[in-house]
Amino acid sequence: MDMRVFNRKVIRVLLLTSSFVGIIYLAHALATPLTWVMVAFFLALAMEPAVRRIEAILPIKSRGLAALIIILTALGIVVFTIAAIVPPLVSQTQELVHAAPGYIEQLRHADNPIIHYLNQHNTFSQSQGSSISVSQIFGHGSVIWGTVANIASSIAALITILVLTFFMILEGPGIARTFWKYQPAGKRRHRQEIAKLMHQTITGYVSGNLLTSLIAAIATTIMLTILRIPYAIPLGLLVGIIDLIPLVGATIAAILVTLASLVYGGAVKALIVAAFFVVYQQIENHTLQPMVYKHTVNISALLALVASLFGATLGGLVGVLVAIPVAASLQILIKDYLDNHRAVDHT
Questions:
Q1: How many C-beta neighbours within 10 Å does residue 40 have?
Q2: Is-contact 86 236, C-beta < 8 A?
C-alpha cells in the first residue's frame, strides 16, 4: 500500500474528527446565543405572512414598519400580562411572609395529634415562633436578588431575540435572494419547493398554536369573569401565553390559575375552575391539537412528544417551543431524501 495515500487518509480522518470536535465545542460554548438566533429565525418565519398582510394595508409600504408593529404588539401583550399579574402576586407574597410567624405560632398550639407528636419531639423549638423574620425566610435577600437577576436576564434575552427577529424579517428577502442565487441551477427549483413546504409547515404550526392559545385565553377569561375572580383578563392572557408550550402548557396554566382562584375566590370556585380546565383540556387534546399537528405539521403525537422531550433537554423552554417545527422540517428533508434515493436506486 502506498504510504502517501495512507498518510492522506489518516490526515483526512484526523481533520474531520478535529473539525467535528471543534464544532461540538463551539456549539456548547455558544449554546445561549445560538438558541436565541434559532428562536429569532423561527419567529421571523412565523411572522412573515402577517408582515406581508400588514405591509399591504399600510399607506407607506414599509416592511420594517410592518415588522415593528407586530413585534411591539406581541411585546405589549407580554408586558401588560406581567404588569397586571406581578404586583398583586408580590403584595400577596409579602402579606404571606409577614403573616408566616403568626401562622407558625398558631400551628404550634393547634389541638391535633400530629402537632402534639411534633411538640413532644421538639420539632418546634421555642425560638421558632415570633422570631422568624422576612430576611430569614428569604435567606437574607439572596433569593430575592437571585429572582431579580433571573428576571433581568430573561428580559435581556427577550429583547435580544426580538431585535434579531426584526432584522431577520427586514433583511430576510435579500438574504434569500443571495442564497438561491448561488444554488445549482438544476437543483434550485426542487430545493425551493422543499424550502416552501418547510416554511408552510412552520408558519402553519405557529398559526395553529397561536389559535389554540387564543381560544384558551378567551375561554379562561370568560369563565373567570363569570365566577367574578379578580384579574380575569391578565390570568386569561397568562393561560394563552403558557398554552403556547406544546403538550404540557395547558396543564401548567391550569394549575397556576386554579391556585389563583383558590386564593382570590375560595375552595368552591377553585374546584369549578379545575373542572373547567379538565373539560377544556380534553377538548384541546382530542380536537384542537390533533387538528393543528395533523393539518399544519403532519406529525404524529408520539413524534411531537419525543421532539418536545429532546427540545426541553437541549434548550429548556425555548427548545420545547421550537422542537415540533424543527422535527417536522427534518421529517420533510428525510422524506425527500429517501424518495429521491429510492428513485435513483430504481433507475
A1: 20
A2: no
**pLDDT > 70: what percent of the chain?**
71
Global pTM? Answer: 0.62
* Distance in angstroms (rounded) separating the CA atoms of residues 265 and 119: 34
pLDDT tens for 261-307 read 887 888 888 899 999 999 988 887 777 766 666 666 667 667 777 88
2 phi-psi bin (left φ>0, alpha ψ -120 to 50, beta other): beta
Q: Is residue 168 within 8 Å of 44, Cβ to Cβ?
A: yes
Measuring CA to CA, which residue among 260, 250, 213 is closest to residue 77? 213
Radius of gyration of the chain (CA): 27
3-state secondary structure of 247: coil
Residues 6+ apart with CB under 8 A from 41: 168
Angle between helices 267-283 and 249-265 (to 10 degrees): 160
- In 3D space, the residue among 325, 338, 300 whose CA is nearest the CA of residue 208 turns out to be 325
Q: Report how far residue 288's alpha carbon sits from residue 215's, in angstroms, rounded to the nearest whole number.
A: 10
User: In degrees rounded to 5, what are phi and psi of residue 245?
Assistant: -70, 125
Tell me, what DSSP letter sits at residue 126? Answer: G
Grid coordinates representing 305?
412528544
pLDDT tens digits for range 130-185: 444 444 444 545 555 666 666 677 778 878 888 888 898 888 888 888 888 888 88
Res 9 pLDDT > 80: no
Q: How confident is the model at residue 114 (pLDDT cuts 50, 70, 90)?
A: low
Characterize 295-320 residue by residue with b for buried, 16 or more Cβ atoms within 10 angstroms of its Cβ, and e for exposed.
Answer: ebbebeeeebeebbeebbeebeebbb
Cα 309 from Cα 323, distance rounded (Å):
8
